[in-house]
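Notes to self after the Tuesday call (sharing in case useful).
The group wants a holo model before anyone commits to mutagenesis around the pocket. I volunteered. Ligand is adenosine-5'-diphosphate. Logging inputs and output together so the record is complete.
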Amino acid sequence: MNVLVINAGSSSLKYQLMNPETGDVSAKGLCERIGIDGRLTHKVGGNKVVKDIPMPSHSEAIQAVLSILVDPVDGVIKSTDEIDAVGHRVVHGGEKFADSCLIDDSVIKAIEDCIPLGPLHNPANLLGIRACQSIMPNTPQVAVFDTAFHMTMPAKAYRYAIPTEYYKNDSIRRYGFHGTSHKYVALRTAELIGKKEFKMVNCHLGNGSSMAAIKNGKVQDTSMGLSPLAGVPMGTRSGDIDACVVQFICNKYNMSVDECLTMLNKKSGVLGLSGVSSDFRDLEDGAQKGNADCQLALDKFCYETAKYVGAYAAALNGIDVLTFTAGVGENGSYVRQEVCNYLGFMGVKIDAEKNKVRGEEMKISTDDSKVEVWVVPTNEELMIAKDTVALVNAAK
Ligand code: ADP
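Result:
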């Protein structure tokens, strides 16, 4: 079976053609500069092809992807009929979607209704869905939401302590993001430790970072909120911040709220603190060379991440497993070590040698650690493909 996984942004579109049973990716790539001019980067095995193709809209981008997938030289399938289903990443599913679902008109309408909650992402995701529908009208399409896996949170975790009318009238609440990644890691961890019932905290630490407290496979709390700005500090996002900071900055610098939020989303986090980079490799280099601001950015990131683990361990009444995933979580030995150093009081102990691991599944805790600590590389595309095939098969 072949599932085409699509992650559409406002001017870009990532794709992977994969077999959900084996996880084998036969081709993957990226369309960039949609609406500007258009460039396709297509990868099969170790080979990479880059083509400038006009892409006035997402429709031409999808067309370019399908054309190269069936291309006699660069392609991997003979006909687009070999694509059994398409799985779309959709960022915001609001309260309407607690799971992935087959796309029909009512689902499209519900995704549109969530645009006020996900104004940056949902419109682009819809463009990808509509383009696929028009070009492949007979191929089933599935929507997989970043928010859905978090819908098991209890009200005490998802409600903000503000007047109830804002929740009732406007659906203002914690939603959480990276749900597809948290779900993949939770399911994979259950396989790795051979248990279904256990309590874990997953640290998805990448350019965007989020934490999830998960009990028996169900999210109990997560660090991102109504938007992905909340939680631990990130590459360029501030993470949790006192709302009065916004008021102060807007008043003093004559900024609009939107301008201030752009600063909090794009110029803050470890980039803002270090003044050097949002990339943790640069921060580690800088800190090693004695740059105190780079060191502070790393210290702040590890400190806040560890605080979330402690808070979630309290929320879950103890944890059995701590997992690290995404770019920093999978590769950043320094960050993992520093975070775990704070957690010694909970009996967390990691093996310095095993902690050197990069991008591979590995238990990095010592045998006498009270909490198992694992590096579990995430695979959001595989999770999307698996959800897609399960829904398509169930509908047969
Ligand atoms: P995104 O949130 O964009 O999906 P990723 O999960 O791909 O981000 O993570 C990207 C980040 O991973 C980079 O910004 C970089 O800081 C970090 N990273 C990659 N390799 C390493 C490494 N060897 N050590 C520390 N951090 C790393």
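Two things stood out.
The mean pLDDT is 97.
The radius of gyration is 21 Å.
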